Amino acid sequence: MIELRNVSVAFGPVRALSDVDLLVAEGELVALLGPSGSGKSTLLRVVAGLEPPVAGTVVIDGRDVTYEPPQRRGIGFVFQHYAPFPHMTVRENVAFGLRVRRARRELIRRRVDELLAMVGLEKFAERRPHQLSGGQRQRMALARALAIEPRVLLLDEPFAALDAHVRRELRAWLRRLHDELGATTLMVTHDRAEAMELADRIAVLNDGRLEQVGPPGELYDNPQTPFVRDFIGDTTKIGGVIVRPDELELSHTPIDEAAEAMITRIVDLGPEIRVELTLADGAPAEARFARRRFRELDVRSGDVVWVRVAGDALVDQRPAGRTRVSLASGSAAS
Length: 334
Fold this sequence. Notes:
Its EC number is 7.6.2.9. The chain is α+β, with helices and mostly antiparallel strands.
């Protein structure tokens, strides 16, 4: 378990973190999500003992470790740009932490064999890091972090340097591994899809402050601040009403509670299609559709269409809830 109580960090006159409270339950995977400069990595470094807070308390498994050095916190840390020992084999890299702790040779051999099998690298044990792919190096990094059997696992954007296909594969693999091990994990990411796919809960940070913490679906459906609403899911505005692009429907003919618009661009995103619109007042908007549904619409750039909300929508005045809207009047009803 990780508990942060009123943690603040300052770099000179600049506050990097302000009064952050966060609880990560035993066996839970929590993602720290936010834009660059929001304080995500700083918060992770505070938990790791690499950055001292100017105020607040850090508790791991019920023990106050605020002023404990990293090596006494029982943590495993995987950085974004993992730097293995290039002259060592994969086996030697994974065993390094155990050797530093003077573990028995037989224990080291058994533990390393278990980890290499767990991360799928047993066939690459005698290779050097430069002979591995980027994804394989990250698996080696995770095995090395797990070798010391840490109480807490900290991941600082571990897949950011990898291409999109490898990232998707490793996300699914990491979630399976986490469920198997039951480690308490805190992960930094700026990738919204990564956080929503991997995490049990997401902690959204903005400008050093914790905006909201909750399961992915809760943050998407019930954002508590305008920042969370816009950062967790794409939004578009029609007549002063803020909606999700996938909450809109289009029609070739006028329909009730619909606004007139022209399709200015259609963007093929693979599994979904983005339809960019210009409303009658000149304001831009967009709608998104699953590929099959888009084909049924039979629309093209330059078409004049009518757009309305298909379901519940978010409105400017009510960022913390869901309300039914009428585009014809711009009104909202609870």
